[in-house]
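User: I'm writing a short report section on ligand binding and want a predicted complex to refer to. Could you take this sequence and zinc ion and write out the structure as tokens? A short remark afterwards would be nice.
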Amino acid sequence: MDAPWQQLQRLLLPWRCLLCDAAGRDGIDLCAGCIDELPRNHSSCARCALPLPLPAALCGECQRRIPPWDAAWAPFRYLWPLDRLESRFKFGADLAAGRCLSTLWQREPMPVERPELIVPVPLHRARLRQRGYNQVSVTMKKRYVSLQGKQGLF
Ligand SMILES: [Zn+2]
Ligand SMILES: [Zn+2]
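Assistant: Sure. The structure tokens for the complex follow:
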């Protein structure tokens, strides 16, 4: 249940699809049609999450040289329209697009074991000063909180 100020905010500013301007679904600025057409990463390498044309455990590169991490998970592919939302968030300071991406990611069930720690790739200080935020930290924070039920290690 949203706080009263959030309910008032949604009454004045209802969820609106950032891609087609139709009414958004509850809790996200995307409509049902646009959500259904998002590029999902159905077949991917269990080790690096690279999209694969056919289901397989590992991609060719991970079979040749096993990476130093155990698993990677990417529920979506970096294609239209998610690449557009990412650019708006990353380079245009469009925080609504960032919230949308964070919510999408948060709603996806994780196929791998829950991590103990999520570490965003750090930004260079100059880039952080220029942008004002680390886009990975912003999008992952909600996910981490939902995984652990508390903040702390992030
Ligand atoms: Zn839409
Ligand atoms: Zn791989």
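A remark for your report: The helical segments are 4-12, 32-36, 60-64, 82-92, 95-107, 125-131, 135-148. The first helix runs from residue 4 to 12.
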